[in-house]
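ok so for the tutorial part 2 we go from a plain amino acid sequence to predicted structure tokens. step 1 is just haveing the sequence, like this:
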Amino acid sequence: MKRTLSILLAFLMLVSCTSALAAYNDHTDYSQFPLVKDGESMTVTVATKRSEQYGKDPEDQWFWIWSEQATGIDFEVDQILSTTVNERKSLMFASGDLPDVLFGVSLSTSELVRYGVGEGLLLDLTPYITPEIMPHLCKWIEAYPQSIAYCTTPDGKIYTLPGYSDFYIQADGPNIMQLNTEWLEEAGLEMPKTLDEFTAMLYKFKELHPEGIALGSGAKNGEGKEARDPRNFLLNAFGYLWPDTSSAYTIAANPAVREGKAVIPAYDDTFVEFLKLMNQYYTDGLMSKDFFTIDQTTAFAQLAEDSVGAYAGVAYLALPEKEDFTKWVDTSPLTSQWNETAKAGALNKFRYGNVSLNANIDPNKIETVMRYLDYFYSDLGGMYLWCGPAATSADTLGIIGGYTVTEDNAYVWLDKDGNKMESQAFMEGDSGNIAHGFGNRSHPLENKEAFDAGVTNRPEMRSYYYNKDNILPYNYDPNFGSGAHLLNVRNNVEPYRAESFPMVVYYDEETTLAIDELHTILDPYIESEMAKFITGARDLSEFSRFQEELKGMGVEELLGYYTQAYENYLAAKQ
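step 2 — the prediction. this is what the tokens look like for a chain of 574 residues:
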């Protein structure tokens, strides 16, 4: 990258530790930093998420301290607990009391249309996405033009910025299920291939561990709760396919594809068979009685106590030690009498909706904020947004220890005293990175040296920034939690990827309002009645009546919108 001596000197002054600045950071593009000149000031208000388990105040988090020192901007950060994000988001927009920037507070396509197109509460970012203001992002858009289409609403405007995620290694998606292989071996069983085998496995787990939980649940913590729910995996076995999206709708009301048609699962006749199975699991004690209320802390504690046999989530987040996380293996999607072919929903490598600006932000701040956001589309900026600085970087600022790479190519996160930390505690607490749905979370776009060396994903990029003279190729390293998990995904899930409902669909304003209104009515009722059917509070003989109730609440109108969107999608592909 092109640099000048003055830029380097400005950076050295910025971090106030010239003697400690490592040579391998000489590629870092700080060309737009600092963003506020000496003697001037600028305050930018931000709303972002906070981890319930690991969160710390922004004045104690590396990310916001570094952001202020690097840019000269004074950030006033309002942290919102993940469990209350949806509620706070609704209140902010209803009152019009919005911060300058929503940072990692995700907006769905319908919310982008409603608040951007309809209510004019979001700023159109189109005029600022230029090579002069956002050079890093513009290069990504040039390389992947379709990415910006995911952020463009029907009025042709852009109210959010894209994120680039896992291009060369797919993640797990919403239909994840991991099995405790020690329990599986103890039961003398192989990995299940069918729904019947999965059910038989749960019964065996319960027999061998009567005080344990055969089918554990991931956290249901407000935003995106459907992404870590065993019901997704089980519905998949009945043939329902969802894409990897950030929709906040309840799982049974989300548009899915089954047997080549768009469906709303709760209004589909096969759904009753799923409810029968879940009721059987609940009645026979294969599921925890607090299934519908469990939080992340409790779910992680159950894993740490080795009291779970099957888990809808990624266990390494709770079990950072290799000897603990390696016993958890991702299982393949299941077949059943209602689904002859094992399939997993498609994944979306382009993200959207995770950063937006208030339409009423002071116009004098806009370009500065956009230049700040652009940095996270650079190689190093993407890493900073995702997992903070390397241990050898002066950018740790003495606040955190950073991450380091061990001799066996595993990553270790350190506190400021050099003590090893849990990766999640480091990232979500000390480092403060819990808002990484935009920017570069994939591969180096501009750094050809790293790309030619096989650096195609985040862990390899971490290796690059730790020591660019000794790049450690990332080959799904089982010594590293996500490496072991993604190795399982590649082997056990990737072969089954199939096309599902379109990942990103924008409707016009009128349709968006109609869909949102229908979901507002239908979602809580579907979720409530589904829980009643599962727990036995409502008899399954009333399923037909339940469908009639949904019909009276407008479910057929909602299905009509989704059917048309799916047909349009199929037609556009021809």
